[in-house]
Amino acid sequence: MVVLKQSDINRRHSPTWIACNDDSRAGYWRSVFTSQYGGEFTKNFRYWSWKETESYIAPKFWVFAFQGKEVKTFNLYEFCKEKSLTRSAMYDLMHGRRPQHKGYTFLREEANPKYVPKNTTA
Questions:
Q1: Does one domain contain both 71 and 107?
Q2: Based on the domain organization, do 31 and 72 belong to the same domain?
Q3: 43 and 74 assigned to the same domain
Q4: What is the domain extent for residue 38?
Q5: 0.70 surpassed by pTM
Q6: Is residue 96 part of a domain?
Q7: Which of 116, 114, 90, 118 is closest to 102 using CA atoms?
């Protein structure tokens, strides 16, 4: 059993570092670590290093109706996976090519009020 500690992730040869770099399931352990602590891994020559990042806020979300209730989602992939829906059918639904899919109908796309675009300099 591997216990992933945030304090040990960039310290070479610690159990957490070994799990995320030299283990045969290193990709799995990196995804587990980022789901617990956020941030991102970057390839640093042969090894991976982790750094904290700002939390991501989606710029928009989609509103669907199911059995008369509004359902909002930011991540269509996870939503379809969780509800056993077909992603391509949901995209067809959003573009008006289908009226409904497994009881879901598309209502609208809304801007996220919490989204603040990053300043970009050209």
A1: yes
A2: no
A3: no
A4: 6-51
A5: no
A6: yes
A7: 90
Instruction: Mark whether 68 and 107 lie in a shared domain.
Output: yes
Classified as helix, coil or strand, 36 is: helix
Q: Which two tokens stand for residue 111?
A: 């801007």
Per-residue pLDDT of the chain (122 residues; tens, 9 = 90+): 678 888 889 999 899 999 988 888 888 899 888 888 878 899 988 899 998 876 656 667 778 888 888 888 877 888 888 889 998 998 898 888 999 999 999 888 877 666 665 554 54
Q: Are 54 and 114 in contact (CB under 8 A)?
A: no
And the tokens for 37? 């602590």
Residue 1 lies in a domain: no
Which tokens go with 17?
């570092």
Apex 27 CA angle, 26 and 33, nearest 5 = 85
Residue 46: both structure tokens together: 């042969």
Question: Rounded to whole angstroms, how far apart are CA atoms 41 and 22?
Answer: 14
